[in-house]
């Protein structure tokens, strides 16, 4: 079950009181552990889809508690969207999960990150590999027309414990498949250009298994009718826990792909600033 909170009239709110303050415009609770929210975008903020910024709230001592959060909205959006877990005792999310429309958060407008298209060599297929809220930067990149200009196909592999935790990504992909802008740019076959492969690890469902297992066994390639990864044609981005990133990196290297960076584009990149448990 999800809860939508309507957008309030920001003009009716008092003047900003926090440093680097931005106003919350929408909040949606997807499960008891996951929520997304949107905030106003600083007029001067420029970022590349896939990058992250530092956001936060004042702590009990008045000092800001800041964490790295990937921007889930694309670079062309007028607002900024974020997707977060809820940690009851987390220094930040114990407070952040209670924000409401009209509240303020701290947002440091200095975007950085490795999950950007410029960090990859040209290719044919682009794989997004994520667990949990690691889908956030790919929520940005899947809505970025440039992703489809550079690659013939985009494949979103997303794994969560249970089916309800996949709801954010599932709804986003479904909406994109009927997006008028992308449909106008790429025709009626756009649905074939964005492939979605959601799996669960603790709850039975149509598709199950960890991303590493589905890649090494070849199951995902058989299910989607694609050839195995090839460094000549396939590019990938990874975002998840440190253990997930390490495991998937080894799998991709087994296919012959090399890790790249903004200054040295290669076949895959890893986001090392993912916000994990305990935040």
Automatic annotation (TrEMBL):
Show the Pfam families listed in the entry.
FAD_binding_6 (PF00970), NAD_binding_1 (PF00175)
**Where does this protein have coiled-coil stretches?**
none
Tell me if Ribosomal protein is a UniProt keyword of this record: no
Q: Which cofactor does it need?
A: FAD
Catalyzed reaction equations: 2 reduced [2Fe-2S]-[ferredoxin] + NADP(+) + H(+) = 2 oxidized [2Fe-2S]-[ferredoxin] + NADPH
In the Enzyme Commission scheme, what number(s) does this protein have? 1.18.1.2
The highest taxon in the source lineage is: Bacteria
List keywords of the entry alphabetically. Answer: FAD, Flavoprotein, NADP, Nucleotide-binding, Oxidoreductase
The yes or no answer to whether the keyword Membrane is present is no
Indicate the segments forming the FAD-binding FR-type domain, all copies. Answer: 17-118
Enumerate the Gene Ontology biological process terms.
Answer: cellular response to oxidative stress; heme catabolic process
> Enzyme class, one word?
oxidoreductase
Q: Which InterPro entries match?
A: Cbr1-like_FAD-bd_dom, FAD-bd_FR_type, FNR_bac, FNR_nucleotide-bd, FNR_type-1, OxRdtase_FAD/NAD-bd, Riboflavin_synthase-like_b-brl
What one GO molecular function would you report for this record?
ferredoxin-NADP+ reductase activity
UniProt similarity note: Belongs to the ferredoxin--NADP reductase type 1 family.
Q: What is this protein called?
A: ferredoxin--NADP(+) reductase
Query: What organism does this protein naturally occur in?
Result: Paracoccus yeei
Q: Recite the lineage of the species.
A: Bacteria, Pseudomonadati, Pseudomonadota, Alphaproteobacteria, Rhodobacterales
């Amino acid at each position: 079950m999800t809860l939508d909170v309507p957008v309030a009239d920001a003009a009716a709110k008092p003047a900003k009181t926090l440093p680097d303050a931005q106003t919350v415009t929408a909040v949606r609770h997807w499960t008891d552990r996951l929520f997304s929210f949107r905030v106003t975008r600083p007029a001067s903020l420029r970022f590349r889809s896939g990058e992250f910024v530092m956001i936060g709230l004042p702590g009990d001592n008045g000092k800001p508690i800041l964490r790295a959060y990937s921007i889930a909205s694309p670079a062309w959006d007028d607002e900024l969207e974020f997707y977060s877990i809820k940690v009851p005792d987390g220094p930040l999310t114990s407070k952040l999960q209670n924000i409401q429309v009209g509240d303020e958060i701290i947002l440091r407008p200095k975007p950085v990150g490795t999950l950007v298209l410029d960090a990859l060599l040209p290719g044919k297929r682009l794989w997004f590999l994520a667990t949990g809220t690691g889908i956030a930067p790919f929520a940005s990149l899947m809505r970025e027309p440039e992703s489809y200009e550079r690659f013939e196909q985009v494949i979103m592999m997303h794994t969560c414990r249970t089916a309800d935790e996949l709801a954010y990504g599932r709804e986003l992909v479904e909406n994109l498949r009927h997006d008028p802008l992308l449909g106008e740019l790429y025709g009626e076959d756009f649905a074939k250009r964005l492939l979605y492969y959601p799996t669960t690890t603790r709850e039975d469902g149509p598709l199950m298994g960890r991303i590493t297992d589905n890649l090494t066994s070849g199951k995902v390639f058989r299910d989607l009718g694609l050839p195995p990864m090839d460094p000549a044609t396939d590019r990938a981005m990874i975002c998840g826990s440190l253990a997930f990133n390490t495991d998937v990196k080894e799998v991709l290297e087994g296919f012959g792909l090399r890790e790249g960076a903004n200054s040295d584009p290669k076949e895959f990149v890893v986001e090392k600033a993912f916000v994990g448990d305990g935040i």
